[in-house]
Amino acid sequence: MNNLSALITPDKFHDECAVFGVYGHKEAANLTYLGLYSLQHRGQESSGIVSNDGAQFHVEKAMGLVADVFTKDRLKRLPGRSAIGHNRYSTAGSSDLKNAQPLVVNFAFGNLALAHNGNLINAQMLRNELEAYGAIFQSTTDSEVIVHLIAQSKQNLLLERIFDALNQVRGAFSITLLTDAGMVAARDPWGFRPLCLGRVKDAWVVASETCAFDLIGAETVRDIEPGEVIYIDEKGLQSFHPFPKVKPAMCIFEHIYFARPDSKIYGSNVYSARKALGRQLAKESLVPADLVIAVPDSGVPAALGYAESAGIPFEQGLIRNHYVGRTFIEPEQRIRHFGVKVKLNAVPEVLGGKRVVVVDDSIVRGTTSRKIVKMLRHAGAKEVHMRISSPPVLSPCFYGIDTPTKKELIGATHTIEEIRKYITADSLAYLSMEGLLAAAPGDGARYCNACFTENYPIPFTKAEEMQLGLFDHP
């Protein structure tokens, strides 16, 4: 038996977490379960829910997918009118229940639960300082630093302690906090990771993406703004802006790959944004061809946009198997491109004798692209032209995305022609940086594009540069 994620992990970046929260609903835990189910694409390693029944917190979390973790019996053990939940994507060496969230503590100010999407670039330094003053950590996740900072703050009110703690961390955080009296949702001043506010009847809900609201019948109210902290209790909703103002740096990769296409991210529909990237890609790198296909599922909207702009028919030349489990019995006999074929299969009747444009959203290491091109040729494609709806990835992300090191990024170490030869395509073209910013929704200046440009919005101190990459984060 093999771990399937290791066997056929797509050559992509991975968003590392999803958060969800409900305040003021009699079925808070059930709604949180459904919200996490909608956000499964943002993390598949572990899932957890914490509920508050007014007297105590109830915790259920485990390794695995949402639908496997939360049985009817488990959900019955989560009473109360408020709850927060978390899906986690593990990084190397961190597949451990102790790192599953939400994190739950009891301290001088009562119960506190935290769910965090993002990455704190100064977490290791803060952890070293906290441990020097006697703090005992229960996990290796950077999120736990926030809990300790809240506990050690000298402020008199819990909300002020939260402001104090979040002002000490540097990096990306979209978080939900459950307290005895209410729920807090906060987004870092740069707004790296998305966080949305909604309503279902008289209850308030927060989520990483709006697709979670659709499933539970909630109305999307608005994005929680970069640098905004929202506090919800029985008196209603209050909004605070306790951080120094900085230039927004929202992750552009949410529109390229991470978010579900039916979500609204940063106020714009993801599906429409991806189609626009595909149209721009066709304008920049048109090639004579008989059909356009996508690498499913994330490449489909961009491929549709490319086909529309190019006037070339779109076909389903690659079919994805959506029902792949977490483990797989690998056959003893060696099968060509086995790992990729578990998830993708080419259709010879569509591809045979055709000049094919295949659209994908990104290339990270190039290994999967190489296998796909060879699979298409094996299915009879006459020519294979690879088109990528983003620029070459040059640098790792330190703001909540699991990325390889720079030396593993093929775009950072090879020219486009060298990459074309490696993946064995007849031609290869990426979307230009200028084209990406022009086609992306809204003002292109509001996005973080460090993975393409190495222009990091938060300058690193020397100490942070030494620590980054050594710390396990969610």
Describe this protein's structure.
By secondary structure, the protein is α+β, with helices and mostly antiparallel strands. The chain has two domains: 2-249, Glutamine Phosphoribosylpyrophosphate, subunit 1, domain 1; 270-441, Rossmann fold (3-Layer(aba) Sandwich), CATH 3.40.50. It has a seven-stranded antiparallel beta sheet. Strands 7-8-9-10-14-15 form a six-stranded antiparallel beta sheet, covered by helices on one side. A four-stranded parallel beta sheet has the order 19-23-24-26, sandwiched between helices. Helix 6 (143-152) crosses helix 7 (158-168) and helix 10 packs across helix 11. Mean pLDDT is 91; it is low at 1-9 and 470-474.
Entry summary:
This protein is of the alpha+beta class and about 475 residues long. Helices cover about 30% and strands about 25% of the residues.
Strand and helix layout:
Elements: E1 2-3, H1 4-8, E2 14-15, E3 17-23, H2 28-38, E4 46-52, E5 57-63, H3 66-69, H4 72-76, E6 82-88, E7 103-107, E8 110-120, H5 123-132, H6 143-152, H7 158-168, E9 171-179, E10 183-187, E11 196-200, E12 203-207, H8 211-216, E13 219-223, E14 229-233, E15 236-240, E16 250-251, H9 253-258, E17 264-265, E18 268-269, H10 270-284, E19 291-294, H11 300-310, E20 318-320, E21 327-328, H12 338-343, E22 344-346, H13 348-351, E23 355-360, H14 367-378, E24 383-388, E25 401-402, H15 410-413, H16 416-423, E26 427-430, H17 433-439, E27 447-448, H18 450-453, H19 462-467
Parallel strand pairs: 16-27, 19-23, 23-24, 24-26
Antiparallel strand pairs: 1-21, 2-25, 3-6, 3-12, 4-5, 4-6, 7-8, 8-9, 9-10, 10-14, 11-12, 11-13, 14-15, 17-18, 20-22
Helix pairs in contact: 5-6, 6-7, 10-11
